Amino acid sequence: MSFEPRFVSFQELSERLSAYEAEYGYSTIEFYHRFQNGELGDDDKWLSWAGLYHLYLTSLPIRQLMRTSASASI
């Protein structure tokens, strides 16, 4: 199985997190606390959700920096 990385927009990332929340009935933050505490195991679905949340958390500061930089140049 090969894996090819692809660009995921912040909007798509948010939508995918929302889909997990709707499917499993709790917020991403609640899920992540439970996942980190070892309450959920390591099924692929949990690893995927955790990975998407990690991308969300790491991309948020970059998005904020880009907005600040864009505002400063106007």
Oligomer: single chain
Low-confidence spans: none
- How would the global form be characterised? elongated
Backbone CA Rg:
15 Å
Number of strands: 0
N-to-C order of helices and strands: HHH
Mean pLDDT: 85
Q: Main β-sheet: number of strands, strand sense, barrel status?
A: none
Helix content: over 70%
How many structurally independent domains?
Answer: 1
Topology, element by element:
Layout (H helix, E strand, L loop, with lengths): L9 H15 L3 H9 L7 H29 L2
Helix pairs in contact: 1-3, 2-3
Brief overview:
The protein is mainly alpha-helical. The chain is 72% helix and 0% strand. It has one domain.
Write structural notes for this entry:
This protein is mostly helical. It has one domain (19-72). The chain is built from 3 helices and no strands. The protein has helices at residues 10-24, 28-36, 44-72. Helix 1 packs antiparallel against helix 3 (44-72) and helix 2 (28-36) packs across helix 3. The termini are far apart.
What brief labels describe this structure?
elongated
